[in-house]
Amino acid sequence: MQNKGEIPWYWEGTYLFEKMDDQARHAVLGKSHRQIFRKGATIFRADDPANQVFFLEKGLVRIFNLSAQGSETVFWLCIDGEIFGAGGISGCARQSVFGQALDHSVIHSLKREDFEDMIHRYPQLGINVITLMGARLRLACDAVIEKTASTTDIRLARGLLRLSRNFGSWDGEEIIFRKQFTHQELGYMVGASRQTINRALNAFARRQLIRFEKRTLVIRNVDALASMTTTVE
């Protein structure tokens, strides 16, 4: 697999309670409202009040936007241990994006004022939030730039490598994905139609860059896939 130094820091998951003890974690989540969302459920919409912060205990959440023409741009995927809906801590009155559960998800919501109080009580929490929001900004910038400045093949190669950091397991010379992504979901992530993604994946398979084990994606040649794109820190 690529060396650690070759992977952008913001491709890694950012655990909200990094370097914090269990007592602090319980104190923060003790202020939250815990809910379960089924796969496909909407958590919030653009223009909803941004008076809450959300913590993903378990599951998968996509953050995306819709253009006036109805096309989607997926900015990032939230994984276990991350927060989202950051408009609630930036002072925005309304959300500007959509949040949707891609899996059965367990989510905690905290009122803005309660979360801000916890940041005052636990400074490390504030540092972790800054790190996470910085990573999200880089991912959002990448999503916009890649959608307009790269070919579908390059965007898909970069997207698969990025997803492999959080959803893949290294097995010798291959990376086996632990989660199945539909062609439509991959299309949303890289700004392409399902049919275009299907053709690109088939082309990757013919070049022996990837393969499918039933419905499970396996990256066969990480170096060759990485050579298709340039990683910028």
TrEMBL record:
Keywords: DNA-binding, Transcription, Transcription regulation. InterPro entries: cNMP-bd_dom, cNMP-bd_dom_sf, Env_Response_Regulators, HTH_CRP, RmlC-like_jellyroll, WH-like_DNA-bd_sf, WH_DNA-bd_sf. Residues 150-223 form the HTH crp-type domain. Pfam families: cNMP_binding, HTH_Crp_2. Residues 16-119 form the Cyclic nucleotide-binding domain. Transmembrane segments: none annotated. Coiled coil: none annotated. This is Crp/Fnr family transcriptional regulator.
